[in-house]
Specification:
221 residues, alpha+beta, DNA Excision Repair, Uvrb, Chain A, Immunoglobulin-like, 3 domains, 8 strands, 43% helix, extended, Calcyclin-binding protein, HSP20-like_chaperone, cytoplasm, phosphoprotein
Length: 221
């Protein structure tokens, strides 16, 4: 449909260009007739349909949609279990709690819970899951998403992104030079700390510099 509409619009543009160049009345009349026909056809085109069923689902949702950020997780040999707390979720019809799985992701949609819709998406799961073995369970005030592991092995975290950020953090403190590792740790504490923490670190920094200049301590902290 979209391609057909684009073609019509391109045809109309070309007719307009030809009109601008045409000098013979008969040719201009033919082009004007064609221009009106194309404009009418474009006007009568039905509006574009939503991209896919999921888009349609979301656009038809009434009320306010909330993204879920809080969850807990656990694992067994066969499953990764994600626990999402939602008050009163057990009162909803089962079809209003939907989970779509792919090999490396899942997304949850809870419709019309206390006048709101709730969504949660997990992309880039650490390892592949078996879509056909994955499911969701509705418990009191909780949705449990069960991702069936393709291989029975321990996951150190849930997503690839988490793994990468953990590795970066580990690399920052696993240095051969202990004072460098300490420096990185202090910088992190300083960056993430409140005013009180920053004052404490500044004070310690100044004192260590003073001691070093007096020759009390040899190590550069």
């Amino acid at each position: 449909h979209v391609i057909f509409l684009n073609q019509l619009q391109k045809d109309l543009e070309e007719v307009k260009e030809l009109l601008a160049k045409a000098t013979r009345k008969r040719l201009r009349d033919v082009l004007m007739t064609e221009k009106h026909k194309l404009e009418l056809e474009i006007k009568n085109q039905p509006p574009p349909k939503p991209k896919d069923a999921a888009e349609e689902e979301k656009s038809s949702l009434g009320g306010y949609t909330v993204k879920i950020n809080n969850y807990g997780w656990d694992q067994s040999d066969k499953f990764i279990k994600i626990y999402i707390s939602l008050n009163g979720v057990q009162k909803l019809p089962a079809e209003d709690v939907q989970v779509n799985f792919t090999e490396r992701s899942f997304d949850l949609l809870v419709k019309n819970l206390n006048g709101k819709n709730y969504t949660m998406t997990f992309n880039n799961l650490l390892k592949p899951i078996a879509v056909e073995g994955s499911s969701r369970k509705i418990k009191t005030d909780t949705v449990l998403v069960m991702c069936r592991k393709k291989r029975e092995e321990k996951w150190e975290c849930l997503t690839q992104v988490e793994k990468e950020s953990k590795e970066k953090e580990k690399a920052a403190y696993d240095t051969s030079d202990p004072s460098e590792g300490l420096m990185n740790l202090l910088k992190k504490m300083y960056a993430e700390g409140d005013d009180e923490m920053k004052r404490t670190i500044n004070k310690a920094w100044v004192e260590s510099r003073e001691k070093q200049s007096k020759g009390d301590i040899p190590m550069d902290i």
